[in-house]
Amino acid sequence: MKSLFTLNWWVWLLRGLLFVVFGIIAFVSPVVTAATLAIWFAAFLFIDGVFALIHTFRHWKDNDDKWLMFAEAAISIVLGILLIRNPSITLLYVSLMLAFWFIYSGVVKIGLAIQVRKEIKGEGWLIAGGAVSVILGIVLLARPDMAIAGLIGLLAFFAIVMGILMIVISFKIRKGSKWIENKVDHAREKIEDAREAFEQRGQG
């Protein structure tokens, strides 16, 4: 099985850095309005979604996880566009949209972790990231009327934690993909040796 994880570990590294940058900006920025929050997160969702979508299509034939990755990327892009086109959207609506996105994104990450557990080591980090995402989504659903300051703080904290987890995951994926490549190369060498031995035996 091939997965987008083993093909593009650095994509997860860059996405993790994007999460961390967004979280830091949200923490250090002054008091913002719901419209500003919508624009910030819209840009984040759109960029992250486009980036994920491009790399999903680049390895479409080789990726067994393509539909899950495509759905997550497409939803991110659609939500980003909706928020960009409606900057005057209410805080309640923003909270609900983000809640559903976090829950879906978390479920996808957990599902992918289960699929690739034989390909990489440390899939628990991906499960942890998915769990954090789902928990945040549930919190937002339970408290959609949360004050803007509380919402900003929650999103900033989540973004930094998720970003760090994704960075760790990227290096786990890189290590796992190298292990797989070494095993494949070793198997090819064994096959080549067996073929040469068979040919020599046939000539003798």
TrEMBL record:
Lineage here is: Bacteria, Pseudomonadati, Bacteroidota, Cytophagia, Cytophagales
Q: Which GO terms describe its cellular component?
A: plasma membrane
Locate the transmembrane regions by residue number. 12-31, 37-55, 67-84, 90-112, 124-142, 148-171
Q: Which domain of life is it from?
A: Bacteria
Q: Determine if Transmembrane is one of this entry's keywords.
A: yes
**What are the alphabetically sorted keywords of the record?**
Membrane, Transmembrane, Transmembrane helix
Q: Which InterPro entries is this protein grouped with?
A: Acid_resist_chaperone_HdeD, DUF308_memb
Give the species this sequence originates from.
Answer: Fulvivirga sedimenti
Please identify the protein, giving its name as recorded. HdeD family acid-resistance protein
Q: Does the keyword Membrane apply?
A: yes
